[in-house]
Write a structure and sequence with these properties.
- The structure is a homodimer of 452-residue chains.
- The first copy, chain A, has 452 residues and is an alpha/beta fold.
- Chain A has one domain: TIM Barrel (Alpha-Beta Barrel), CATH 3.20.20.30.
- Chain A is 39% helix and 13% strand.
- Chain A contains 15 helices and 13 strands.
- In chain A, strands 1-2-3-4-9-10-11-13 form an 8-stranded parallel barrel, surrounded by 8 helices.
- In chain A, a hairpin with a 4-residue loop joins strand 7 and strand 8.
- In chain A, helix 2 packs parallel to helix 3 and helix 9 packs across helix 11.
- Chain A is globular and about 75 Å long.
- The two termini of chain A are 43 Å apart.
- At the A-B interface, helix 2, helix 3, strand 6 and strand 8 of A face helix 2, helix 3, strand 6 and strand 8 of B.
């Protein structure tokens, strides 16, 4: 434990087929042959658990990338995490799922079941999904507006919360002599009728170990930040510099306070994708070797999907115009937060198109770093102790080798410095993140407190 | 193997919390304390696998029973089966899922992932869900008509089929030197626009081991039979007598032929719920002991939900009027098939209300039998060899004790008679059921054969 504050880092392993670098599958040592093999993911999760990481995390979108240049996810994330749950005991299990393209009753069941199967380790990364490819798989011609998506997201979270709470914790009595299995006075219809959803309830299963999965959010647009500050217990975010990350951190914590929430219960966890080697020079060479494996056509595709801007007219060795991501004429969609990250890179570093594609190849806008184990640990500590992060979403460029390097060489330094646990203090993801277990909104004590 | 025909029984273990008898949880030896414990289901599945059963099966409805008199399912079925997949190697894994209340892209992902995680063992029991409680959890005020539900179901199955087929089996090339991971000419948008659904595709994962999960169906209304004969590879059904079962069997096989299908690839699997003991008298006593644990108020509730008829005005010891399930005035919903089963019981046996409730308490209209191991085996053989069944959905009244009795005492008799396997012949559920693996509808060979 940190002698001064007792504050501890949270560290997730962000899973991503062969690794977070877009060309990782082409690396000679990649495990591309195993991306359809569930035991490979179970092994990675066990490695992360042995190092006492808080959670494994999966991003998700219900659509195909639309490219032949890299693997797609072969597993649906909640089933993948269920399979990991049965192969692990303590590590948290965070799945992304879309409020725009799921029905809340179905999704609530999946997360409740994962929470029960895992003994209280489920987390939900709540996304609204701006992908047009996804919208077209669900009856729509185009992505709904940011405002509409976030309005539905809030209604969806409210409904899911009521469903998870609709069985009070002590509703099951299982009294053989009387034949009463459930105290029906403790199971509540939710009777929700709103603009986007109409759900009667109650839920069809008892409350799960954590009460609700941990609520996580990753949007950084204005709507996304407001939503996160109101609902999220952890926030996954992408920043390239300490100062950008600090500004975001301050903004989120202050917004959370304005909702009457304890800012310590809103963890800010930026992504970090570390290339680790014995020397700084070797680490840079490793980073450059991966960038040398990229396919520019893929990078240009992703730039369009992620940043909403086409740069196909530029030569790869041409400096990208500083206003490319600020000019309204070029905007193809409303993925504002990632566009801002890219605009900041252009302004700060004036990269050529090739350099920009390489900057994004490692982490799609997340912070890609290279260095010795001590250098990586220093960066983590610097962000952690200077108001930029409560922990990190660790995004190994290549699985499992660069997760192993992080765990074997960086984590021990963090532990030695008192910044990261050497044993789990509890059994649930809420325990790992230092979050309370919420009472059911229907529980008698709460009803009493509110004067009902 | 049966010396005369070589035909082999298919046997599933139909899972249902403490057991299929509605009062099983009240039995002194029930495992009601473990219904929220995933390892309990894994143990049961391993028992069924050790006996070489074809599959475990889960029913499902996305709504609460609305009663305090028995346990609800604590797990969502696809996640439950995923957890079982990781604890077993060969046994099939069949989940019910509703075409009325899921989006096909989401459901296709869940089943594809289960099929991959299990190495080709997934089956989908396709239901349209007539429960009004379910409809009200998904934005509706009432259940859509039988016709509407089956129209959507057909469109849903067509869409899911195209999604599962949209990656041809050899689409993934994973060629490191060229950077081509997928041959994009073998990944197909499905571009579906129909009355109920609009789905562009393609799917976002490679084809799963079985190509598609095994298609199973359980509806017995006219629309249900037509749907089953056209789409299903196995049919779960409820009959009380050999002659009713034969009539159904003949009808389904002949309908399948009329769709140009091989009737051997449409297995008919009635439910059977066996009370097994050393003597016939002890088996009857066991059956009556369970019926003595029932709560009449629960049975009356279920009769309304299942049969669409209220008999609350009758005394428990009054004979149920023979026309109770045939009079349109009493009909609360359109669950026609189960109503027909009940009408047949009334006509044949003239039971009192209490006797009727007891008849339904064991298997909700499925065939509840009691007898010695030889008697149970004789019944199974009789139905199997007289055109009434290709196998059975075994519904133990109490888990695990009455599954154990079936496996330890009945299965060996069936094996001795050459009616049931002593080893699995293959690895997938399609192998166990004797079903072919379907080619993708997009595969070049098929396109050639159809002159495209």
């Amino acid at each position: 434990m940190n002698a001064q504050t007792g504050r501890q880092l949270s560290l997730n392993a962000f899973l991503h087929d062969t690794g977070h670098h877009e060309a990782s599958w082409r690396h000679a040592d990649s495990s591309v042959e195993r991306v359809g093999d569930i035991t490979w993911y179970q092994e990675i999760a066990r490695t992360a658990e042995a190092a006492k990481l808080d959670a494994v995390f999966l991003a998700d979108s219900p659509a195909w990338y639309g490219t032949g240049y890299r693997p797609s996810h072969e597993f649906e994330p909640i089933t993948l995490l269920t399979a990991i749950a049965t192969a692990t005991e303590r590590i948290g299990l965070v799945s992304t799922a879309s409020t725009s393209f799921y029905e809340p009753y179905n999704l609530a069941r999946l997360f409740s079941s994962l929470d029960r199967i895992s003994g209280g380790r489920a987390g939900w990364n709540i996304v609204t999904t701006f992908s047009e490819d996804a919208a077209r798989n669900f009856g729509l011609d185009a992505t709904p507006s940011n405002e509409d998506r976030y309005e539905r997201a809030q209604e969806f979270v409210d409904v899911a919360t009521l469903l998870w709470d609709s069985w009070e914790d002590d509703a099951v009595v299982a009294d053989r002599p009387s034949g009463d299995y459930v105290d029906v006075s403790k199971v509540h219809a939710i009777d929700h009728v709103g603009r986007h959803l109409k759900v009667k309830g109650p839920f069809n299963a008892p409350r799960s170990p954590q009460g609700r999965p941990v609520y996580i959010q990753a949007g950084s647009s204005n709507e996304g930040r407001a939503f996160a500050a109101r609902n999220a217990e952890a926030i996954f975010t992408a920043h390239q510099t300490l100062s950008d990350a600090r500004a975001f951190y301050d903004d989120i914590k202050s917004r959370a306070r304005s909702f009457g929430r304890n800012p310590d219960h809103v963890l800010v966890l930026p992504g970090i994708s570390p290339f680790i080697a014995d020397t700084a020079e070797e680490a840079r060479e490793l980073y450059e070797h991966f960038n040398g494996l990229t396919v520019p056509a893929y990078g240009l595709d992703q730039l369009e999907k992620m940043g909403g801007v086409s740069l196909r007219h530029l030569d790869l060795d041409e400096v990208v115009p500083i206003e490319a991501f600020g000019s309204a004429g070029n905007v193809l969609d409303n993925s504002r937060s990632r566009k801002q990250v890219i605009a900041n890179i252009l302004e700060r570093d004036r990269p050529t198109l090739r350099q920009l594609l390489h900057r994004l190849a490692g982490g799609r806008g997340h912070n890609v770093v290279h260095g010795t184990p001590v250098q990586i640990a220093d960066t983590i500590q610097e962000w952690f102790e200077n108001g930029a992060a409560d922990g990190f979403n660790v995004m190994p460029p290549l699985y499992p080798q660069l997760l192993d390097a992080f765990i074997d060489r960086v984590v021990p330094i963090l532990q030695e410095r008192g910044l990261f646990r050497t044993e789990y203090a509890g059994d649930t993801l809420r325990d790992h993140y230092g979050l309370p277990r919420p009472d059911s909104v229907y529980s008698a004590d709460l009803a009493l407190a509110s004067g009902k």
